[in-house]
């Protein structure tokens, strides 16, 4: 492999977990970080059973004013807390939620009133969600899912059906408040929060733990990944499996769709991130974290380069990955080497901010680190592809009555 210059990402800030006697014990891990869809809040699991929410704009401002470290743990810099009486409801304030058990997963959800519940009987509901509603779902160690009102801190729903750890949560992006949970009990469950949290469907197919799940931007497809090399795609209108994607050599632990829905990124313990075309199952790009690339036998074992997380930027051009070699990498979808890197020990998860300008990563000790993301002017080809692929899957693009050169121009190619 040819040598390439390693450009280091600029650190934006750090939110460090408070020191405690439990530092060396399990339960402090920050398994998940999340940004609200409107960019108003950032949330993370601070260890044990605590979730912390901070107003994102104020958090960024404090980084700029006071430096990068320990912002929310300094009494002199503490952001205003949210009152329990719900006063000034929609004004973002710092909030701490005790979830009652170890938190493994988080997801923000916001509703669009015009989007009706899929439930047939909609004559009466305990909750009626408005346009300004912002919810936080937390997946717990005991298999429960708790739904919170972000503005008031009140517990709205307690969803009980999983029998093992709820490893991941994702809301449908269409504002329907359809929530999907992935669990170590080998199932995915679909919940309708507009129907008071009714469980609509159980998706079965995984033969082992389910690690992660993600909706396509139009909410029509769900990807789920898990142990035993599993990558499944589901039709979320019919709740049926579309296909299983084959290629990884170890457990697959994270997945994310591109903003136009044309690409799917998956991260695996086999040291690789794959970029797929989810509409036909082709692998378009491989991002390796160990060179030379390991053999399938070595990749399927303890190779010291397990990739823990992957996230697609909102520009559709960049992907971030986090691995056990103490590195965060930023990739372009058309280059097989990182365009930027950053050091991080004991990283577990990562996510881009809503505007794509910042990457957040959580660690084993409950802390969060932030970096500025690569900022590059997209090509005309990329902008055209994104525009077309938001409304057309691969097959429809290939059937367009246009010259072959134009088809190539509009296609993501190997």
UniProtKB/TrEMBL annotation:
Pathway recorded for this protein: Protein modification; protein ubiquitination
Alphabetical list of InterPro entries matching this protein: SOCS_box, SOCS_box-like_dom_sf, WD40/YVTN_repeat-like_dom_sf, WD40_PAC1, WD40_repeat_CS, WD40_repeat_dom_sf, WD40_rpt, WSB_SOCS-box_domain
Pfam families, A to Z: SOCS_box, WD40
One Gene Ontology cellular component annotation held by this UniProt entry: cytoplasm
One GO term of the biological process aspect: protein ubiquitination
UniProt xrefs under SMART domains: SOCS (SM00253), SOCS_box (SM00969), WD40 (SM00320)
WD repeats: 129-158, 159-201, 203-244, 245-286, 307-341, 351-371
Superkingdom of origin organism: Eukaryota
Domain SOCS box: 370-414
Matching PROSITE patterns: SOCS, WD_REPEATS_1, WD_REPEATS_2, WD_REPEATS_REGION
Keyword line: Repeat, Ubl conjugation pathway, WD repeat
Keyword match Ligase: no
Function: Probable substrate-recognition component of a SCF-like ECS (Elongin-Cullin-SOCS-box protein) E3 ubiquitin ligase complex which mediates the ubiquitination and subsequent proteasomal degradation of target proteins. Recognizes type II iodothyronine deiodinase/DIO2. Confers constitutive instability to HIPK2 through proteasomal degradation.
Protein name, per record: WD repeat and SOCS box-containing protein 1
Organism: Pan troglodytes (Chimpanzee)
């Amino acid at each position: 492999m040819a040598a390439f210059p390693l450009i280091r990402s600029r650190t934006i800030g750090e939110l460090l977990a408070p020191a405690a006697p439990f530092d060396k014990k399990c339960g402090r891990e920050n398994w998940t970080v999340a940004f609200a869809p409107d960019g108003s809040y950032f949330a993370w699991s601070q260890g044990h059973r605590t979730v912390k929410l901070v107003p994102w704009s104020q958090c960024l401002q404090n980084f700029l004013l006071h430096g990068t470290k320990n912002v929310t743990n300094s009494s002199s810099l503490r952001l205003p807390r949210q009152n329990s009486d719900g006063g000034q409801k929609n004004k973002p304030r710092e909030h701490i939620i005790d979830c009652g058990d170890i938190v493994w997963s988080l997801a923000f959800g916001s509703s669009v009133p015009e989007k009706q519940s899929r439930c047939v009987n909609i004559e009466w509901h305990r909750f009626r969600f408005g346009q300004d509603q912002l919810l936080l779902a937390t997946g717990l160690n005991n298999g429960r899912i708790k739904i919170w009102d972000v503005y008031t801190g009140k517990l709205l729903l307690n969803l009980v059906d999983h029998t093992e750890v709820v490893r991941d949560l994702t809301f449908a992006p269409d504002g329907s408040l359809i929530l999907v949970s992935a669990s170590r009990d080998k199932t995915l469950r679909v919940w309708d929060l507009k129907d008071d949290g009714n469980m609509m469907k159980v998706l079965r197919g995984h033969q082992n733990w389910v690690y992660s799940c993600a909706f396509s931007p139009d909410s029509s497809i769900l990807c789920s990944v898990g142990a035993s090399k599993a990558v499944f795609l589901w039709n979320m209108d019919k709740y049926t499996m579309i296909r299983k994607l084959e290629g990884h050599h170890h457990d697959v632990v994270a997945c994310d769709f591109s903003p136009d829905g044309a690409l799917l990124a998956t991260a695996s313990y086999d040291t690789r991130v794959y970029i797929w075309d989810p509409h036909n199952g082709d692998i378009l790009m491989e991002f390796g974290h160990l060179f030379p690339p390991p053999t399938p036998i070595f990749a399927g074992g303890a190779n010291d380069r397990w990739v823990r997380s992957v996230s697609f930027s909102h520009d559709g051009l960049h992907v971030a990955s986090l691995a056990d070699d103490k590195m965060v990498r930023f990739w372009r979808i058309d280059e097989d080497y990182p365009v930027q890197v950053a050091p991080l020990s004991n990283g577990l998860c990562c996510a881009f901010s809503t505007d794509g300008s910042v990457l957040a990563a959580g660690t084993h000790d409950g802390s969060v680190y932030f970096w500025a993301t690569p900022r590059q002017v997209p090509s005309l080809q990329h902008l055209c592809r994104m525009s077309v692929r938001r409304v057309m899957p691969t097959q429809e693009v290939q059937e367009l009555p246009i010259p072959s050169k134009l088809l190539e121009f509009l296609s993501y190619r190997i």
